[in-house]
Design brief:
CATH architecture of the largest domain: Roll
Number of domains: 2
CATH superfamily of the largest domain: YopX-like domains
Number of helices: 1
Distance between the termini: 32 Å
CATH topology of the largest domain: SH3 type barrels
Helix content: under 10%
InterPro entries: YopX-like_C, YopX_protein
Strand order of the largest sheet: 11-10-9-8-12
Protein name: YopX protein domain-containing protein
CATH class of the largest domain: Mainly Beta
Radius of gyration: 15 Å
């Protein structure tokens, strides 16, 4: 399933996009999302950072998105999309793994926007 969440860079909160509009060139040019008080919020990529659902869930059944911080018994990692796939960058190292192999035994403990303290190695 393809779905997204959106970090509102202006008002600093995570939301769910209601509409994502693409230009004729295939690039995102407008996003409509739910605002803090239930109203509609609109903007472009200067306002929102879109993060895609990986299609995977952690050990507790929580959906894993780009920007999530995962933790297992050995380390913490940040979920990113690069080289055409979802990867887990281990915090404080240059190690990088395929997220598919990281979901066994890992749980989402936050995200890079709301939990900066989790990024310290």
């Amino acid at each position: 399933m393809i779905k997204f969440r959106a970090w509102n860079k202006v008002d600093k909160f995570m939301t769910v996009p209601l509409d994502i509009q693409l230009g004729s060139d295939g690039y995102i040019y407008w996003i409509e999302a739910m605002g803090l008080n239930g109203e509609h919020d609109e903007g472009d990529l200067d306002v929102f950072k879109l993060e895609q659902f990986t299609g995977l869930k952690d050990v507790n059944g929580k959906e894993i998105y780009e920007g999530d911080v995962l933790e297992n018994r050995k380390y913490r990692s940040i979920v990113k999309f690069a080289s055409g796939k979802f990867l887990a960058d281990v915090v404080g190292t240059i190690s990088r793994f395929d997220v598919i192999g990281e979901t066994h035994g890992s749980k989402v403990i936050g995200n890079v926007h709301e939990n900066q303290e989790l990024l310290k190695g």
